[in-house]
Amino acid sequence: MISKACVDKTRRSNFIKNLIGVFFLFFLITGSGCATRACFNGRYSGADKIASEAKLKKTFIETDPFTLTSYYRFDLPGKPLTVYIEGDGAAWETRRRLSKDPTPRNPLVLKLASRDPSLNVAYIARPGQYADRGYPACDPVYWSDSRFSNTVVESMNRAIDDLLNISRSEGINLIGYSGGAAIAALIASRRQDVLSLTTIAGNLDSEAVSKYHNVSPMTNSLNPIDEAYLLKALPQRHFVAAKDRIIPRTVAESFVDSAGNPACAQIIIIEDATHTDGWIENAIVFYQQPNLARNK
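RE: above sequence
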């Protein structure tokens, strides 16, 4: 007979193994980097400079339980609002150690937002990124295993409500990069005012991505593909990098299949892009809204 102590020990060992697997996948996406406060401050000031040059205003949006950082420009209130949602950021210092601050090392999404010619544009960082006073106040679990949790999705959703109150827009075009694409899709499934969904190198099936990298799934997070059917009538564009070694093309294809209405969705391959590179050079294609009719 196997003792209870032996079983408990095995369970603890498996838990630690699975947790390390999730950490490893996140490290693959974010890479390594410095952990000093000066390094983090440099990321903050760099983002502020990009936003200032594009005439984007900075604000901190209070939600429950996070304070989210946003940059926005509203040139013609009432017109549709284009919202960019940040990726997973720099969540790890090493393969085994979470970062103290998940602020992106490369502000790719903010750069895309700053160049967007739409009349009303907003960028929303994920929990812990570009934090007020420079110190993330939330639990690091929200940039690791719970990064796609309902708590995060609802917080980001409420931040969009606040931005809509300022812009007085009646419709939203959502754009999400990498893990931000997962958040964008999950938000879109909960709203009736989304005009289109655009994803860039999107993690639209977190379970499939975990299997692809042979790590355990994120048990405390939602999986966007499970809600794809709710987006059946929503115009969608999913941009995939031909050289992406993090998110394979099959993820976007499976998401579109699960939505069940291919007439409303496009998968667009960017041949010279990787997961992190080549998107700025092809940014013009993101700024064109989908030429797809909403089809119920």
